Amino acid sequence: VDAPVLSDAGTPLEVLHRVFGYSGFRGDQAAIIDQLVAGGDAVVLMPTGGGKSLTYQIPSLIRRGTGVVISPLIALMQDQVDALRAVGVRAEFLNSTQSIDERRQVERDFLAGSLDLLYVAPEGLTTPRVQELLKQGEIALFAIDEAHCVSQWGHDFRPDYLWLSNLAELWPSVPRIALTATATEATHRELTERLALQNAKHFVASFDRPNIQYRIVPKDEVRQQLVAFIREQQAASVDAAGVPVPAAGIVYALSRATVEKTAEFLVSKGIDAMPYHAGLEASVRARTQSRFLREDGVVIVATIAFGMGIDKPDVRFVAHVDLPKSVEGYYQETGRAGRDGAPSVAWLAYGLADVVQQRQLIDKSPGDRAFKQRMGQHLDAMLALCETVSCRRVNLLSYFGQEYLGSTAASAAAAQEPTGLLPPAAPACGNCDTCLAPPETFDGTVPAQKLLSTVVRLKRERNQQFGAGHLIDILMGKVTPRVSQHGHDRLATWGIGNELNQAQWRGVVRQLLATGLLAVSDDGYGTLVITDASTAVLRGERRVELRRDVHESAGRATARTP
Ligand code: ADP
Ligand code: ZN
């Protein structure tokens, strides 16, 4: 007779009440737990804050043996284990930060069957020592966290995840659950296949985060813009009882240098900001993180190293001063705002230089052609989100293959509306910048032609290529040293672009780059070249619709209602 599969912990609901002290399950939690308790596999796509952890923690307590959680976030294992121990769950982790003695103790506890949960890093699992250990103990389930990391097409591929395809063969009777807070349909399919989860049940929650207001603004003086944004957030911040509280936030930048400089600047403006990046000493980082978690109103300026899995529910804003490399990254980072459900803002300042810089980074990256193509596609999707003139939320959700179905409040109101009288409302969220202040568009065909023909003439007549700044100087009829030196004031297009100012021209170049009507050359200097698609514009066969940038100083919607 086989040993019983279940422990005597009780039903999922009893465990939820007794161990975690919550009154009921949310969303798909109960269904996911039932699936695992019954021995089945599950694939779970649920946004940050949705409550993924309980979906494997509770089945680990209910099934006999130890639940093995595979997580790439070594830095957070200690916190997760501490939180579980605080409610009486027997949890441990195995990773490279431990001493031999600590590891041996955990191994003994596991073999003795006295652990409910064991967290391991994916690179640990690929070692024979850990594999041997797991074979000798009793395993309740495998939980694969951040499962999108197995996808080569995703934005966060980790080679160690590939080994996880072996779990199905090595432990055919142990249920497995893969979880992620970010997955396009392609990534969803790929992770299902690579993790051999063909027989799994799929639980796909809505990725909408209705309390996050999305704002993407043209970059002028980015640090000044950031200060203005943070001050506005801090002035608006109140707690549930309406009492003002200093707002905590995260500012993301791509480089350590920008992180340091931005943090210094914020401090000089009286904002309680601290830098965070991998180059800082561990003790400094730990102190920064703990101030952020424990005190009100701390602003962290960080590279993307910060935030993975940090469970601070009341982050009121996430700001990006550099363009994220992918929509997945943007969604994941902005998702750290407002886990408590209260109104929060995701703010991104983005400009021409970002587009040029990112295209160059891709060109210079050591990857092969397929890799660069993939990065290019990620960037294109991010640019499309930045340049859209319709609802950001609709765009974001459609990237993840989801349709925006309206806020719960809106759909409840719609349900009471007599049907057939009104046309269905346009799908728009009412809580993003383009919904709150619909951007104007204008026919940009003529400016686009002027710019493109300048690029073409320089190439054809003089075999020269230039960056955006010089091209704009030519169009605006400026006499700079460089214009004089090259005799560019004799070009037919010199001085024909005075209908737009410098900022507007930069907006035109940015949008042409974003839509592939102009490209950054691979010469390493950020010079611009035309593309196959440019020809139709030059011939007058294609109209170019452009978004009129609204610069923040000119006053814009700052409403913050959810
Ligand atoms: P995720 O991993 O999906 O980002 P977590 O598992 O960290 O989300 O859960 C987010 C927060 O919601 C945590 O503070 C968690 O304790 C809480 N939570 C999860 N499920 C429930 C529930 N059923 N009732 C109350 N709180 C819950
Ligand atoms: Zn919207």
UniProtKB/TrEMBL annotation:
It catalyses: Couples ATP hydrolysis with the unwinding of duplex DNA by translocating in the 3'-5' direction. Its cofactor is Mg(2+). Pfam families: DEAD, Helicase_C, HRDC, RecQ_Zn_bind, RQC. This is ATP-dependent DNA helicase RecQ. Keywords: ATP-binding, DNA-binding, Helicase, Hydrolase, Isomerase, Metal-binding, Nucleotide-binding. GO terms for molecular function: helicase activity. Residues 237-383 form the Helicase C-terminal domain. Belongs to the helicase family. RecQ subfamily.
